[in-house]
Amino acid sequence: MKRKTKRNYKQNNNKEMGYFIITDSNWAKLRNEILNLAETCHKAFGERSRHTDWLHNGDVCRLLNISKRTLQTLRDNGTLAYTKIGNRTYYLPEDVERIVTKVEDRRKDARYRGHTI
Question: Along the chain (117 residues), what's the average pLDDT of each consecutive run of 10 residues?
Fold first, then answer.
């Protein structure tokens, strides 16, 4: 059985894409190669490389009890390390834990001055 995929959308250069035909056996080979590559990367980079270990913006805001704008400021001034993949921003849990005391100190200082963060 052959898989037939029609790609009939236009790219930025306004050229239409044609058909791409792949047999079931070739699809299985390609799939296995991709899975093997993923397993090799996982072995090479270890458990820390797993995407699920990273925190998203909302997770960090809830953990630190801060606004999205404050989180942006922490990124901008280099207080909090982050990684961007596509349009998403990710944080390592240990980086977030490292700045908890800094955020608490800023919160206390702001309260002393009559402000909030």
Answer: 50 67 90 88 64 84 92 93 90 92 84 77
Separation CA 28–CA 43 (nearest Å): 22
pTM for this prediction: 0.52
Tell me which residue has tokens 């959308």.
Answer: 9
With vertex at residue 103, the alpha carbon angle to CA 74 and CA 90, rounded to the nearest 5 degrees, is 45
Q: Where are the extended beta strands (E) located within 14-59?
A: 19-23
Question: 16: which 2 tokens?
Answer: 């239409």
DSSP secondary structure letters along the chain: -EEEEE---B-TT-PBP-EEEEEHHHHHHHHHHHHHHHHHHHHHH-GGG-GGGSBPHHHHHHHHT--HHHHHHHHHTTSS--EEETTEEEB-HHHHHHHHHHHHHHHHHHHHTT---
User: What's residue 62's pLDDT?
Assistant: 92
Give the pLDDT score at 12. 56
